[in-house]
Amino acid sequence: MSSALSPSAVADLRDRLTGHAFLPGDPGYPAETAPWDASIRIASPVTVIPASTADITTAAQWARDHGLHVGVLNTGHGILDDQHDSLLLHTASLGGVRFDPASRTAMVQPGARWSDVQALANPHGQTGVCGAMPGVGVVGYTLGGGLSPIGRSFGMGADRVRRIRVLDADYTPIDVTAESDPELFWALRGGGGFGLVTELEFETVEVPALFGGGVYFSGAHAEQVLTAYREWVGILDERTSTSIALLHLPPVPALPDLLRGQYVVHLRIAHIDPTVSSLEAAGRAILAPMLAAAPVLNDYTHRMTPDQLPDIHRDPVAPMPVAYRGGGRHDLDDDAIASIVASASPQDGLAPAAIEIRHLGGAMSRPTAAPNSATARSTTFHVWASSPVDLADPQRYRRLVDDVVERAGATSDGAQLSFYGPDPEPGAFQRLWGESDAGRLRAVVQRIDPDGRIRTGRSYSAAVESAGAR
Question: CB neighbours (10 Å) of residue 434?
Fold first, then answer.
């Protein structure tokens, strides 16, 4: 597709928009095309800042008429390629949220972030089934399935969707529900951002309070802590969601002295039980076996309200260049634990910043009344590795995280889409589904985007072998 744009074509686009269009070299272009993952250098020939959802339709139609793909940038956590042949829609300015506490329903525009939803829902004792980071975009997170720190209690973010407004193959807005188009509704909720979504309606859940936070142990005790974790999660019911990570913490002033620049094991917990008289006491009793597993460096678990959910994982929020890969395992045997611990040690001076294990199952393992395509339902543990990237040799760091996941025996058919990472080869992400569902997804994408104009960084048209693939 051509990326050469004449001045008259650009003038026509600007005349038709109520928002703004930026070209490379324009003063606002760098700020309007900066993703959270700074290893991605956006090279879109034109970037549109829509002032209304009607601008999205206008821009998409204009891109079609001028031989361009269409890509979407909101917070930039999920963008996977440089969009060099795309009109890029930067939707962050469309951050509207409507919330009805009586019906426990939120409706968001494509630029809304979880912090926007939580600000309205939390004062009513409600929360979205949100991600660990408040700055993540609601729509992109949900279309990728939505892996939440409270997921064992409430399922995945995609499970709570009631309605999606998306542009059809003619770039006309349509409302999609379980009744109006069950196949498209299935595919959009978990299949990734292959459609241009202009509004999302979903349920919130009641969580006035929870017991949550984290515990840090020295990385020297990683193997015994991971072994204890494996045994501990086997006795937890779905009121308790947990994860554990081996982290090389940066030497930054924001961290306390005992953690700054250290190699640590970070246990995270979210326990929800409205029936107990003391959440603190209940949470402490549940956490006790892990507190006895090794000497504790820091314990910041406590009774918290939903607005404090981001404090559970304490993920970094500043943009950075990053490489990551995820995969699923049905168990954590001794070999897997030994491999994960060994992978956290520097090899040739290089080590991943994080190796995370999330305990899945619970409500995430159950099919919903209106089925969706969210992945990782049938796996027990999700293994994810990440590393900051030196832009002088980014592939070295991508090989590092790929190797960590492969050595842990974590496979792509148990991975969660948003945490899977860039495809190692075109269409590889389709291994996250079985062969039948991957074909089903491709058929829906062909229907809503027959010309393959929506640029996600993944190839939905490329079929791959699923059996036995990593």
Answer: 14
Number of domains in the chain: 3
Which of 423, 264, 236 has its CA nearest to residue 356? 264
- Whether 350 and 238 share a structural domain: yes
Asked if residue 167 belongs to a domain, the reply is: yes
**Residue 239 and residue 153: Cα distance in Å, rounded?**
5
CA 117 to chain centre: 16
Statement to judge: residues 197 and 215 lie in one domain: no
pLDDT mean for each 10 residues of the chain (470 residues): 77 98 96 92 97 97 96 91 96 97 98 97 97 95 97 98 97 97 98 96 98 98 98 98 97 92 98 96 98 98 96 92 96 98 92 97 95 96 97 94 97 95 94 96 97 94 59
470, part of any domain: no
| CATH classification of the domain holding 271 | 3.40.462.20
**What tens digit of pLDDT does each residue of 65-111 get?**
999 999 999 988 889 999 999 999 999 999 999 999 999 999 999 99
**How many angstroms separate the CA atoms of 362 and 272, rounded?**
13
Q: The domain containing residue 344 runs over which residues? A: 210-420
Residue keyed to tokens 């990683």: 222
Same domain for 119 and 168?
A: yes
